[in-house]
Amino acid sequence: MTVHNEAKKGEIAKKVIMPGDPLRAKRIAENFLEDAVLVNRVRGMYAYTGTYKGEKITVMASGMGCPSMGIYSYELFKFYDVEQIIRVGSAGAYSIDIPLFDMVLVSSSLSNSNYAYMLNGTKERECFPDKELNNHIKEKAKELGMNLREGKVYSTDAFYTDLIDPNTMYQDYHLLCAEMESFALLENAKFLHKKAACILTISDNIVTHEETTSAQRQDSFHQMITLALESCL
Which of 82, 164, 178, 199 is most buried, most CB within 10 Å of its CB? Predict the structure, then answer.
């Protein structure tokens, strides 16, 4: 056990699906896993372990932002011997050509965060998912007939800011969308020699200001969750 996770060794699966929202973790466990057991509730950061088509899987919330994702994914990799984490989250699109509910597979994560420097002393601002895992996710999406964009995303420390022009981010830097957790997850995986990937669903558009409700974000991301779980098989 750690100060942030009361699960015992062995109660966390080798493969973890990681949404940001604890309530989304609860809904995934209730609707997709068989024989799901609540193994952590410290700070309300729910973790459930069950099976999906016979595969043992844990679903655990990460909370918001690189610091929170950094703590939970680090502990899972380092102290619970987790080998693979797939983040499933929401993102804000930087282009009118990316509609709500589109799925994005992260090919690289750029960030203004100092997380990498604080973790290992490097000044890198871009990190990458595991290539093998990303290829497997793409193959699964094709098998399931799901549309899946692949591209760079911006992992920001500031949810509210007037300093970023979405058109510049999209046209000049080729960034599809913004989110807040992928950079820390991918950096931890690289540092600890583990596998990680990130699938996002567009929940709002920063250009048009269209947005989904919190209820839609909890209940309507079934396609992304199915893809992540199928990619664990």
Answer: 199
Q: Is residue 6 part of a domain?
A: no
pLDDT digits (tens, 9 = 90+) for 10-36: 999 999 999 999 999 999 999 999 999
Give the domain range for residue 213: 15-230
For residue range 155-181, list pLDDT tens digits in order: 999 888 888 899 899 999 999 999 999
CB 28 within 8 A of CB 19: yes
Is 4 within a domain?
Answer: no
In the chain, the number of structural domains is: 1
What is the value of pTM for the model shown? 0.94
Is 204 assigned a catalytic role?
yes
